[in-house]
Every structure is written in structure tokens, then in C-alpha cells.
Amino acid sequence: TLQKMSNLGQPPKITSPRLDIIYSLRASETKEQPIAFSAVADADVRQTFWFVNESYVGKTKPRESLFWMAKPGEYFVRVVDDQGRADSRPLRVQIVE
């Protein structure tokens, strides 16, 4: 039997944003501030696609960073490679004085 392509190889692994960090925005800043999204991917991957709360926010090549303009809140970040494999994690952004 044939396997689907997405069952072969390893899914991408998000390296940023990190799981163990609450990201902070300075209250003194008047504009949004960037958070880097990056992931490592298998050798067969040419593009990764980034989503925040199901909204597409951009694409990168493996190991490249996408800078997302953060606002305070709780989000769900997901990366999908061009083979259909995915990784995801929560992201929390808060304001600090």
C-alpha cells in the first residue's frame, strides 16, 4: 500500500516562540512589537506556512524567521510545512510597565 506523503519524514518543530515564556510588550511603546516565529523542518521541506488563531500570517523557508507584530492577548501559533505536517503551541503576550 502507498503511504500519504505527509506520513513520511518529520513534522516541523517550532523553535520560536518558546513554550516556557510569556512575551512582554512595554507599555511605553505606542506601536506593536515583533515576535520572531521560526521552526526547523525536514530536508524535503522548501516552505513553511505560519498561522495565528487560524489566520495565515506568512511563509518562510525552513530556519528563516517571520516577524509577527504582537499585541497583548492569548494566541495559538501553528506552522505547516509544504508536505502537510504541522506543529503548534500557545503564545501569551502581556503588557508590562
Protein described:
This protein is mainly β. The chain is 0% helix and 54% strand. The strands form two sheets. A five-stranded mixed beta sheet has the order 2-8-7-4-5, with no helix packed on it. The protein has a three-stranded antiparallel beta sheet with strand order 1-3-6, with no helix packed on it. The model has no long low-confidence stretch (mean pLDDT 90).
Task: Tell me the distance between the termini.
Answer: 59 Å
Helix content: under 10%
Rg, please? 15 Å
Number of strands: 8
Chain-averaged pLDDT: 90
SSE-based structural type: mainly beta
> How much strand?
over 45%
If strands are numbered along the chain, what order do they take across the biggest sheet?
Answer: 2-8-7-4-5
State the major sheet.
5 strands, mixed
Oligomer: single chain
Low-confidence segments: none
Q: How many H/I helices?
A: 0
The shape is: elongated
Q: State the order of secondary-structure elements, H for helix, E for strand.
A: EEEEEEEE
Topology summary:
Blueprint: E1 13-16, E2 23-26, E3 33-40, E4 48-52, E5 55-60, E6 66-70, E7 73-81, E8 86-96
Parallel strand pairs: 2-8
Antiparallel strand pairs: 1-3, 3-6, 4-5, 4-7, 7-8
Brief rundown of the structure:
This protein is mainly β. It has strands at residues 13-16, 23-26, 33-40, 48-52, 55-60, 66-70, 73-81, 86-96. The chain is built from no helices and 8 strands.
Question: What attributes does this structure have?
Answer:
97 residues, mainly beta, five-stranded mixed sheet, three-stranded antiparallel sheet, 0% helix, 54% strand
